[in-house]
Amino acid sequence: MFKELVLISAGAALLYYVFSKPKGRGRPKVTCRSSRDPNVKYEISPERQTCTCPDWKERRSSYALNDPRRFCKHLNICFENMNFQLPPALAPFEDMLQHFGLEQKGTPIGADSEIVVVEDKTRGGAETGMLAVRKNPDDDWVNVYFSSLRYGYNQDEDRWSYGNEPPYADELIQNLQIFKKRR
Ligand SMILES: [Zn+2]
Fold first, then answer.
1. Which helix (H) or strand (E) holds 10?
2. What distance in Å separates the CA atoms of residue 18 and residue 167, rounded to the nearest whole number?
3. d(CA 24, ligand 1 centre) in Å
4. 55 Cα to the center of ligand 1, angstroms
5. Domain map (residue ranges) of the chain
6. Ligand 1 being an ion, which residues bring their Cβ within 5 A of it?
7. Contact (CB, 8 A) for 112 and 131
8. What would the pLDDT profile of 114-170 be if each residue is shown by its tens digit?
9. Distance from residue 170's CA to the centre of ligand 1 (Å)
10. pTM of the full structure
């Protein structure tokens, strides 16, 4: 039995997860235990991208395989720390998922969200995934996640937070459905 202790320091609180992975072939299942509550124990399948936690079952199970929004925090932490290879289809989102793994967070989905893959000219045309999220249905703000960065766009005022805009800002606003939806 292979075991790995993942320590994550979040402010003053120290939280860790213990992952255990059985040896052998077949579909690896990973058990994830929380330090906060010893009764909390989830089963993760990295291959099928499933988790038995309530967040995954209630909010993420309907997303297709290889959709980054399928990843609860346990899947993100697991992939980040257990050296599981992401499938090639998720390569455009690798930096983003790694970031959420380090942050110990599930991929944001909010009330509404949309993913898009762009050719990133700053990286020789490599495909990079972007994620746009409206947290609450009546929010003017849409968050755009790109690699490990987050940008905020106020739709009502047509401005990016602090004047920081992501690559392809104009194209995103014109083409993503989430920007067309208003209150
Ligand atoms: Zn989970």
1. strand 2-10
2. 38
3. 23
4. 6
5. 2-90, 112-179
6. 51, 53, 56, 72, 74
7. no
8. 999 988 777 777 889 999 999 999 999 999 999 999 999 999 999 999 999 998 999
9. 35
10. 0.84
